[in-house]
Amino acid sequence: MKSATRLKVQDGTIEKKRKKSSQKMYNRGAWIYALPAFIPLVLFSVVPLAKGIWTAFTDLEAGLYFKPKFIWFDNFRRLLGDSLFWHSFNIGVIWAVSCTVLSLVLGFGLALLLNQKLRFLGLMRVLSLVPWAMPPVIVAIMWSILLNPAVGPIRGIFNFLHLPGGDTNWLADFNTAFPTVVLIGAWVGMPIITVSILAALQGIPQEIIEAAKIDGASAVQRFRYVTLPAVRAITTALVALNIIWNFNSFGLVFVLTAGGPGGKTFMPALFVYNESFKYGNFGYAAAMGVVMMLAVLAMLGVYLRARGRQDKES
Question: From 19, 89, 245, 311, which residue has the greatest number of CB atoms within 10 Å?
Answer without folding.
Answer: 89
